[in-house]
Write a structure and sequence with these properties.
mainly alpha, about 150 residues, elongated
């Protein structure tokens, strides 16, 4: 066994592999199979339950903004209206009821805990799924109560 011959052969093989790599590793566009909302959420939960909570909360915010827009609510002098401000305004004009407002406020507080964990308060996968169920319920209540009035 010769050390120098092995090194030269290794270098030549490595150079050949590097030259072929761009062709061999060129990305092949393969369409991702369509995932359901539940499957997408499950993937996020698997990667990071706290991020899953944020994703579920986003649906509540979209529903809030939609109902507020339908009700003609615009925040004067603001580019962005906080979800709590929008929910409060919707409750004041009776586009949502007190129960819906309370649920949104609780979910907002939980979302904030997930976004800014303190100490060992990590969100579990089970907690993320439970949050999603409540967020889905809140979004449905918003759409039903908000657009029906």
């Amino acid at each position: 066994m010769k050390y120098k011959d092995i090194q030269v052969e290794f270098e030549k093989t490595l150079e050949k592999a590097e030259a072929e790599a761009p062709r061999a590793l060129a990305p092949k566009i393969v369409p991702e199979p369509e995932l359901t909302d539940e499957e997408r959420f499950a993937r996020i939960v698997e990667l990071n339950p706290s991020s899953a909570v944020l994703a579920a909360w986003a649906d509540v915010e979209v529903a809030l903004k939609s109902v507020a827009e339908q009700a003609g609510i615009q925040a004067p002098g603001r580019r962005f209206s906080s979800p709590l401000w929008l929910a409060r305004k919707l409750e004041q004009i009776e586009r949502i009821d007190r129960q819906t407002f309370a649920l949104i406020d609780d979910l907002r507080a939980l979302r904030n805990l997930a976004a800014h964990p303190e100490g060992d308060r990590a969100v579990s996968a089970e907690d993320a799924w439970r949050f999603k169920q409540l967020a889905d319920q809140a979004a449905a209540m918003l759409r039903a109560n908000g657009s029906a009035r």
